[in-house]
Design a protein that fits this description.
Blueprint (H helix, E strand, L loop, with lengths): L2 H6 L17 E4 L3 H10 L3 E3 L5 E3 L12 E4 L15 E3 L1 H16 L3 E9 L7 E7 L2 H10 L5 H5 L5 E5 L16 E3 L7
Parallel strand pairs: 1-6, 4-5, 4-9, 7-8
Antiparallel strand pairs: 2-3, 6-7
Helix pairs in contact: 2-4
Length: 191
């Protein structure tokens, strides 16, 4: 880890083991955007545009995969979700099976990038979230998409919702439509 990375790599009070991840490689906590862009470039995850912006490619899936999005149908959300073609239900067993496989996949990566952020600008309503990925560029995306807590708030950050981002993981499960999937479990606060 370089000096610049060490100065900006700040773990919070909730370790990755709380999510079941036993990282074999380096874990980069809450790196700032400049460091993440440098790492993205060094890992060939993107290039710089003529104006200095990081440019990346998402791979073969360039947009939503609506037939690959599921919501766990459980008691606390069953009556609140408009189930149908858009909000497709799955069971808890499928979620737990796929979650375990994704956690194992992430645990084996040579590097993980963790961002502890907030969703919602009003402090009294903000939801503390965590994004865990094996791509530096996606960690940059998360920093751009969500709100960065103050250093004081970050020290005691406990995520209420966690995103496990593993775009190179390929599912092989009869309960899913394809190798690509997003499963939201509102009761567990995970996707």
């Amino acid at each position: 880890m370089t000096k610049a990375m060490a100065e900006t790599s700040t773990p919070t009070s909730t370790p990755l083991s709380a999510h079941g991840i036993q990282a074999k490689g380096e874990v980069h906590w809450n790196l700032n955007t400049d460091v993440l862009v440098d790492i993205s470039l060094s890992r060939n995850e993107g290039i710089l545009s003529a104006h200095g912006a990081l440019v990346t490619e998402t791979g073969e899936r360039t947009g939503r995969s609506p037939n690959d999005k599921y919501i766990v149908d459980e008691a606390s959300t069953h009556d609140d979700v408009n189930w149908g073609d858009v909000n497709v239900s799955t069971d808890l067993a499928t979620f737990e099976r796929m979650r375990a496989q994704v956690v194992d996949f992430l645990s084996e990566q040579d590097a993980l990038f963790v961002q502890d952020l907030a969703c919602g600008a009003e402090p009294s309503e903000a939801l503390p979230i965590r994004v865990i990925t094996h791509n530096a560029w996606h960690s940059t995306f998360a920093r751009n998409m969500f709100i960065r807590p103050s250093d004081e708030d970050l020290a005691s950050h406990t995520p209420e919702f966690t995103v496990f981002h593993a775009p190179h993981f390929e599912a092989d499960d009869d309960a899913l439509n394809s190798q690509c999937f997003v499963i939201v479990n509102y009761a567990a606060g995970e996707v």
